[in-house]
Design brief:
The structure is a single chain. It is built from 7 helices and no strands. Helix 1 runs antiparallel to helix 3. It is an all-alpha fold. The chain has one domain: Globin-like. It is globular, with a radius of gyration of 16 Å. The structure holds protoporphyrin IX containing FE. The site of protoporphyrin IX containing FE (HEM) has 21 residues, from helix 2, helix 3, helix 5, helix 6 and helix 7.
Length: 142
């Protein structure tokens, strides 16, 4: 048997849906991801569906998101949000935990680590923290 070439071949559509649901459930309960959670609507079910459709295509399966929404560009839908390194890292933390919780193999984690960082960093649209998380009363002490 030949080795699987894409994450889609390893997980299948159901596995990617499970990963996505777990991702948002983790975002919903992880204190470190609270600022990321607060950026999202109260009901995460529409996002579970959208991200699953997106990732199914991105991981090498049928392009469900592209067929439905006509684009796979992730820059435009994220424009309204402040996404700096902290938000990016919270997103990646939830995704890494979701891979762990769903029992992803070492092979799969290895396949995904760099591409996931690249896509999350591509969605980033700021250099630093949001003003809400910057305490204006802190005087730079060096
Ligand atoms: C890097 C940090 C990220 C942050 C802070 C972030 C945040 C958000 C927020 C706040 C929304 C709107 C949710 C809502 O309407 O309730 C959204 C939408 C979305 N995000 Fe992200 N996101 C990030 C990364 C990513 C990445 C890496 C992907 C893909 C792999 C992704 C895929 C999506 C999709 C598919 C949507 C729905 C867009 C649509 O309306 O069609 N996000 N994101």
């Amino acid at each position: 048997m030949t080795a699987p070439r894409t994450p889609y071949e390893i997980l299948g559509e159901e596995g990617i849906r499970e990963l996505t649901h777990t991702f948002y459930d983790i975002m919903d309960r992880l204190p470190e991801a609270a600022p990321l959670r607060a950026m999202h609507a109260e009901d995460l079910s529409p996002m579970k569906e959208k991200l699953a459709e997106y990732l199914i295509g991105w991981m090498g399966g049928p392009p469900l998101y592209a067929q439905k929404y006509g684009s796979v560009c992730m820059t435009t839908p994220h424009e309204p949000y402040h996404i700096g390194p902290e938000e990016r890292d919270q997103w990646l933390l939830c995704m890494n935990r979701a891979l762990e919780e769903t029992g992803a193999s070492e092979e799969l984690v290895e396949m995904l680590t760099i591409p996931l960082f690249r896509i999350a960093d591509a969605v980033r649209n700021r250099e630093g923290p949001s003003s809400a998380t910057t305490d204006p009363n802190i005087i730079a002490a060096s």
